Amino acid sequence: MKVLKAAIVALVFSTTFLACKKDSSSPSSPSVAGKYVGTYGFDNETPNLFYSLNIKADGVIQEIGESSGVPTGEGTWQINGNTLTATYTMLFEPYNKYSIVAIFDGGKGTLTGTWGYDNNGADGGKMAMSKQ
Description:
- This protein is mainly β.
- The protein has a single domain, classed as Lipocalin (Beta Barrel), CATH 2.40.128.
- Helix content is 14%, strand content 46%.
- The chain has one helix at 2-19, and strands spanning 34-40, 49-55, 60-64, 71-80, 83-90, 97-105, 110-117, 125-131.
- The protein has an 8-stranded antiparallel barrel with strand order 1-2-3-4-5-6-7-8.
- It is globular and about 35 Å long.
- The relative contact order is 0.18.
């Protein structure tokens, strides 16, 4: 009888403990995918030249032309934590390759960072963009 009572108490205690467990899933973070419009600059200049990127959910990134609104460059991107890195190649001669390293602020919908030539995301200048 003592064993039965001990088993019932243990069962009630474990059921109560499990029922009170909080769900630890965190809310989903905003997606970096979307169209961004902003500016870039050379070296340490304040960014003031038009810059637009289309970041697709499938890992494709496109630079968008200011007057045409069509892609002028295309490549791939990835995000680790809140740091987005990307490389893309222009779709016209001389087919220059560029890289970016930017911090994504999901709450503000911004990308702020640097751009560069080839695989160096920092030797070109600064950039700042907002999600449209």
